[in-house]
Each structure stands twice: as C-alpha cells, then as structure tokens.
Amino acid sequence: MDSVDRIILERLKTNCRIGLQVLATKTKVSANEVKKRIDLLLNTGVIQNFTTLLSPQMTNEEQVITILDFETTPDEKSVLKILNDNSAVWKVHRSLEDKYVVVGIYFDHEELTNLTLLYRSLEGIREVEMHSRFLRYWGGKVDLTENHKQTLRCLLVDARMSVADIAKQTGLPSNVVNETINEMRESEAVLFTTNTSDYKMGSKTEVLAKIQWNVGITNHEQVLKWLQDEFPSAYIREFVSVTEPTLFFKFTVNHVQEVEFVMQKAHDSGLISIIESLILFPGTIFPDPRQRRLSELLTETGFSGENQSDHSFR
After folding, report:
1. Theoretical Cys-Cys bridge with 134: which of 89, 95, 207, 239, CB 3.0 to 4.6 Å?
2. What DSSP assignment string belongs to the chain?
3. What is the pLDDT of residue 306?
4. Which domains are present in the chain?
C-alpha cells in the first residue's frame, strides 16, 4: 500500500458513499485508477466490506475490552466456538503471551451480564479482566421517520446503494432519498463506513498496550498527543476509559523486538505510571454487533436483512 491507498481508506472510513471523482481529486489520480485501487483493496481483504452504523447515541452502544487468562493453554478453536455463541462478541485475538483479547459491543446491562458470565464459565479460566465505558468520538441523534427507516433498510443491505436504486426500491422521490441520507450523515446519527483488516495493511505485528497515566501530572489528551507524535506511523487507534485513568493503545511494529523500545520510551516520558503490552496474532472477526442492533431496530418495523457488499466499487 502507498500514500494514495491510505488516503482512499481514510476517506472511505469517514464516508464510504463518497464518489469516485471526489476521491480522484483528493488523491490526484484518475477516477478509473481510484476504482481499480478500491477493487484491489476489497479483493485482498484490506477492506472487508462497506457498512452502515447507527451512532452510539442512537443505540446506547458501549464497547468492552476483555483480557482472558487461562490456567493452561486452551484449544483455540474451542474457545472461539464458545465465544461465537454470544452475539456481543466482535473480535478475538490470541496473544503471544497466551492470553485472549476480546472486543465486544453491548447495548444494555443484561448483555454485559451475559458476557461476563460467559467469560467466567470458560473451562480453565484463571482471570477475567474487563474494561468498558470508553470515550465516544462521534455520534448524534435523530428521531427516525418512515423515510429514514425505508432508506436504512436499503443501506443495511448495501451501504453504497445508489440514490436511484433506493428510490426505486422504496418508492420515495430521489430528492427525498438524497435529503434523508444527507440529514442522517450530517447529524452524525448514521455513519457510512468500512470494516478494514489492520493485518492486511502491511506485514507488521499488532500490539495492544494498556496504559495508566499519572493522575495530577497529566491527562488522557496529553498522553494521546504524545503517543501520536512519537509513533505516528505505528499508531492504529485508542480506547480511553471514562471511569479510570486507563487507556488502551493499539499500534504496529515491524519486529517484536521493537515492542520493548516503545514500552520503555513511553514509561520514560513521565506521563505514564504503568504500561503493559500484549503482542497480538491475527484475530477472528465475528458479525458486527452494531449491524445486528440496526437489523433488530428495522425488524421492529417489518424488515429484516444483513449488510452485504460485493467485491466491486460502483
């Protein structure tokens, strides 16, 4: 991947409905070249699909990161099979340290309770470390009208469905469809985005660092700025707790030996009191719980469907 691919990915992550010509202008290559690159990103698995998501404000979404530590090394296939039975589980990584990192998304206390009980019931489990309630960086809210719902029914199946096709399927005028999509996006009630694979973006190793910052000396904003400034090419994303001075920092390294250098440099910054790392193997991704929630909401109005996207970019 080169800088053009990265710009394309960044723009699609923000709005996967963006036009080819707009992307061509941003990247300074032809629209045909943009399409070829996106098709290649799809075919190689860098882009897994295009997706439509309701904002956390619309669904009361909360993410939870769990670190599972077992007495003895469990059978990975058995663990994944059990975790897949819970619809709140989204991503699972085994670490080099023989722990499991599980990212889940829940929408009410009952789902969180069921997830906790599942983890604690795993055979041979020694410790379950759960962190939830992270800062949200986007999200607005609108009252969904029938026009919103009809449009979302189409976009749930294909996040890039054309306005003309949505109008044909719903019977709504094209200008109404266009206004409805724009309202949902501009209000940040709905995000049209991509699911991507970090591991397909290069032959690098992904690391999850758990960081506790020095309260009274600094805050999460200063810590994040320092991390982003010091490791700009390695930075993937972060999860910042709203209940404790803790954040999770995901980054990549070319070699495992580099992890210790990053850990030591972070500790020496004076901003961080405790930092622990887990070196992750490529993970398993289950159906996105946010898609499930959107489908449930639309089912209540008489529609059920799954988000799909073929490997082509129109």
Report:
1. 239
2. --HHHHHHHHHHHH-TT--HHHHHHHHTS-HHHHHHHHHHHHHTTSEEEEEEEE-HHHHT-EEEEEEEEESSPPPHHHHHHHHHTSTTEEEEEEBTTSEEEEEEEESSHHHHHHHHHHHHTSTTEEEEEEEE-B-----------HHHHHHHHHHHH-TT--HHHHHHHH---HHHHHHHHHHHHHTTSEEEEEEE-GGGGSS-EEEEEEEEE-BTTB-HHHHHHHHHHHSTTTEEEEEEBSSSSEEEEEEEESSTTHHHHHHHHHHHTSSEEEEEEEEEPP-EEPPPHHHHHHHHHHHTTT--------S---
3. 45
4. 3-44 (1.10.10), 201-280 (3.30.70.100)
